[in-house]
């Protein structure tokens, strides 16, 4: 999980005391807290997320929002958005954890849906296994995306600041500054080829910016998909939603960067099969997905056979 990664002013012992004293009264049959375990993020122990083991043997996730006091009176209040969105998606059968309880308006208690992230799986499993998982991710993602689209304006008031349609389009167009001829020369070398590819990519950014955006998740990365023992994917982090392109969300969900893992390398889990599954699940043509793959690969440092980072994608 990656909601907040900065340090907290509240000592872990105080957080643990709150969890131990409050959780039993919030759950059926009042189970006691048997253990509070750390969850590791790329930078070390996550300061605001814990795995809770209950006296029943069950496990839960407790997630604290460090900045919740700042959003308490806003329509996009972080814990409230997490519960509203998760409940709606879970009721429709989407693969998301339910919020089981809230504590003092700054902590949510969620179902524990798995200990392995997609990012970890992509770095450690053989290609055939990780691509099977990627296919299941696409199917689950399409169900979530379709649920948001059917919701019409239900979530409009919950859109996070800076995640409105105009702000997202404006920020996306700024990618052109990272695709200038001068910057690409470091990857390609040849002046004429750099100029040609720079023009193509900048035009691609402009074309994609004009494509329809929709409300949905905005914290899309491979660490925000967890896998259970059967490798079923569950999408986490629903405290912030906003506008974006479904194809960009999917590309970055399927992009494993292996952050914090020794010997890791970027891997993009998209091939021809994944593109076909996405098109079938969403009823769309796959041109936009291909274009977002090309753009993301360029930003990652892989351009027309000039890689600066290893990727695991074979999209065409």
Provide the descriptors you would attach to this structure in a database record.
Aminoglycoside 3'-phosphotransferase, Chain: A, domain 2, 42% helix, three-stranded antiparallel sheet, five-stranded antiparallel sheet, 2 domains, alpha+beta, Phosphorylase Kinase, domain 1, disordered N terminus, 316 residues, globular
CATH topology of the largest domain: Aminoglycoside 3'-phosphotransferase, Chain: A, domain 2
Low-confidence stretches: 1-9, 303-311
Architecture of the largest domain in CATH? Alpha-Beta Complex
Q: How much of the residues is beta strand, in percent?
A: 15-25%
Distance between the termini: 32 Å
Main sheet record: 5 strands, antiparallel
Strand arrangement in the largest pleated sheet:
1-2-3-5-4
Counted beta strands: 14
> Radius of gyration, rounded?
21 Å
What is the global morphology? Answer: globular
Topology summary:
Layout: H1 12-26, E1 33-41, E2 44-54, E3 59-64, H2 68-71, H3 78-91, E4 99-103, E5 107-111, E6 116-117, H4 118-124, H5 127-150, H6 165-173, H7 181-188, H8 191-209, E7 214-217, E8 225-227, E9 233-235, E10 241-244, H9 246-253, E11 255-256, E12 267-268, H10 272-282, H11 287-300, E13 302-303, E14 306-307
Antiparallel strand pairs: 1-2, 2-3, 3-5, 4-5, 6-8, 7-10, 8-9, 11-12, 13-14
Helix pairs in contact: 5-10, 7-8, 8-11, 9-11
């Amino acid at each position: 999980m990656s909601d907040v990664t900065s340090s907290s002013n509240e000592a872990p012992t105080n957080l643990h005391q709150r969890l131990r004293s409050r959780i039993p009264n919030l759950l059926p049959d009042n189970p006691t807290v048997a253990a509070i375990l750390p969850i590791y993020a790329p930078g070390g122990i996550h300061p605001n997320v814990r795995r809770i083991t209950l006296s029943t043997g069950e496990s839960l996730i407790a997630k604290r929002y460090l900045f919740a006091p700042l959003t308490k009176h806003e329509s996009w209040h972080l814990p409230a958005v997490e519960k509203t969105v998760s409940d709606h998606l879970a009721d429709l059968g989407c693969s998301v954890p339910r919020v089981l309880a809230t504590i003092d308006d700054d902590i949510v208690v969620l179902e524990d849906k798995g200990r392995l992230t997609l990012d970890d799986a992509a770095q450690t499993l053989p290609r055939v296994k990780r691509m099977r998982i990627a296919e299941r991710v696409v199917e689950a993602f399409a169900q979530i995306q379709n649920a948001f689209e059917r919701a019409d304006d239900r979530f409009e008031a919950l859109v996070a600041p800076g995640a409105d349609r105009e702000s997202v389009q404006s920020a996306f167009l700024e990618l052109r500054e990272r695709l200038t001829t001068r910057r690409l020369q470091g990857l390609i070398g040849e002046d004429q080829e750099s100029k040609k590819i720079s023009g193509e990519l900048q035009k691609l950014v402009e074309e994609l910016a004009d494509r329809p955006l929709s409300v949905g998740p905005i914290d899309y990365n491979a660490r925000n998909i967890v896998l259970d023992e059967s490798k079923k994917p569950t999408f986490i982090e629903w405290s912030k939603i906003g506008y974006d392109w479904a194809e960009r969300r999917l590309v970055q969900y399927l992009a494993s960067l292996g952050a914090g893992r020794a010997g890791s390398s970027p891997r993009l889990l998209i091939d021809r099969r994944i593109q076909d599954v996405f098109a079938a699940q969403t009823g769309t043509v796959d041109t936009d997905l291909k274009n977002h793959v090309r753009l993301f690969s360029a930003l990652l440092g892989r351009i027309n056979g000039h890689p600066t980072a290893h990727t695991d994608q074979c999209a065409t």
